[in-house]
Amino acid sequence: MNFEYAKITRSRLMGSMGLVTKYRDDENEVFEYYLLDCEGLGFCDYVRLENPTKEEAYMEEERLMGGLGENRIFISEDRALFLIQYFGRKNIEYEKPLPEGQEYYMNIIENYETEVTMEEMFPILCRKVTDEVEFINFMTMRFIAWDREALRYFCENQETAYMHITNINGTLLKNTVYEKGSGKYISKPIYEDSDGYYTCKIAFNIDKEEDGYKVKSIFVTDKQPLYDFQVFDEISKNEFVDIYDLKQCDEFADKFYRDNPFMMRSNLDEGIFFTRFNFNNNHVKQNVYVINNDLKAIYYVMEDKLYVGTYSKRDRDYINKLLIANYKDYLNFDDAMCFEQNVLYDFAESGCDDFYYFIED
Questions:
Q1: Percent of the chain residues topping a pLDDT of 70
Q2: Cβ atoms of 242 and 321 closer than 8 Å
Q3: What is the pLDDT of residue 361?
Q4: So what's the pLDDT on residue 227?
Q5: What is the pLDDT of residue 168?
Q6: Degrees (nearest 5) of the Cα angle 154, 61, 257?
Q7: Residue 85: exposure state from Cβ atoms within 10 A (0-12, 13-18, ≥19)
Q8: What's the gap between Cα 170 and its chain centre?
Q9: Sign of dihedral through CA atoms 71, 33, 249, 310?
């Protein structure tokens, strides 16, 4: 088959990228979708569609790429195959299982030959960062994630890339950035490691070069453990929950997902959970970064109820007006509440089928 195009999200600094390739001949079209996980060390999702409709191809691309918050660019076949091979070999090296469909991509992993390197791919996979606070947040994220590959690229001294304070690829939950002048910054992260939660202080000294910012040095101090409840208090935020009576649950859920394929869909014991992220990663530009600040809304569909969680009055007004306008044949407003902490996801995860009982318990 003939190569037609490949697309990649420029989201390497967030830790994951979506890759789509398309091949065709006179009779067939083949789309392949890969989720490349830079922190999980490999690729963790693969879907192959043969002769899909335009809607099916679009929905699968949005499912893969819509929540990653970065723009998509076309890349060459050589670069796309390099990425498949590169990440697939990481699965094998770290003994992480490859997704189903190995008969279609294993030959690329084992036998593809190319002169492309990851170093030359970095400017393609990362959009250019033009804000110093955003750069510090990204570097704190990469440092906590023990992302030596990214640190090697962004650090002037490559030995810096081998510094670490986590046992695994840790997760940055919150970060506060303090500017000290002359390219010097202090990060105060809260992060999750294999054995619990921690905070520390990280001093960064950075330079602005022609091709972007570079880290001159990193210094870590004041590492301390945190209790679960302390972390919860730091990252939790007010949640508006609007409740609707729902008719024709299955039909609504199918239509809702077709209309919004960029949402992450999860099938739970008592219903279907949808997560809607912002279409950008502007939350990384804030002096106080919080992991869930890219969340715009969550939706929990049960047999006769729809629960909608939002986190600002502006988003609440927008989301609920949109629902009423587009799904008035399915929905009737029932109730609204506001909580000082996140409740709706915990309710969905609990398996309980009575929201009022859950919040009173």
A1: 100
A2: no
A3: 73
A4: 97
A5: 86
A6: 125
A7: buried
A8: 15
A9: negative
